[in-house]
Amino acid sequence: MLADMTDVPGLVRDAEAYLVSCGVPNARRNAEWILAHVLGCRAPELYLTPYKVLDRDVRDAFETLVRRRGGREPLQYILGTTEFMSLSFVTRPGVFIPRPDTEILVEKVEELVRSTMSFGGEGANAPPVRLLDLCCGSGVIGISLVSRLG
Asked: Is the distance from CB of 53 to CB of 5 less than 8 angstroms?
């Protein structure tokens, strides 16, 4: 699939074509995120030195991950992380991948806590709020709330 490509634009272009043929939505962004992951940089940084020649190990690692994505494995499992509420969380198979609509839940709980009670009870008449996040999977809801409220 990608064996002859040695530069960023060529790798991304070929990976995008492959992912499109597999029916992966946002194929170009997926290819960029995967290559950035392999190179240990952020996706926009790929184009700072686009014609840098990439060695065989990088190309092989990239191709392996692109094939996994082409097999419709979630990108978050391939990369091992996902962003939620501007925080980075570890994701692996067996843990639910947080959805954007879950961010609305966190925002609503935050609003409720801030408008009706004190968080921690310091200097307020209301009793302190205690949040319990059971069976939390990746922990995105509880951790995000603590981050935003604490």
From this structure: no
Which residues, including other chains, have CB under 8 Å from residue 127's CB and lie 6 or more apart?
117, 118, 121
Q: How far apart are CA 79 and CA 74, in angstroms?
A: 9
Tell me the per-residue pLDDT of 48-99, one tens digit each, with 9 for 90 and over.
988 888 889 999 999 999 999 999 999 999 999 999 999 999 998 988 899 8
Question: Measured between alpha carbons, how far is 150 from 130 in angstroms, rounded to an integer?
Answer: 12
pTM of the complete model: 0.80
Distance of CA 142 to the CA centre of its chain: 18
Among residues 34, 106, 44, which one has the least CA distance to residue 64? 34
Output the DSSP codes for 99-150. PHHHHHHHHHHHHHHHHHSBSS-TT-SSPBP-----S-TT-HHHHHHHHHH-
- Label the pairing between strands 87-90 and 81-84: antiparallel
Other residues' Cβ atoms within 10 Å of the Cβ of residue 101: 7
Cα 79 from Cα 39, distance rounded (Å): 12
- 83: β partners: 88
Task: Tell me which amino acid residue 90 is.
Answer: V
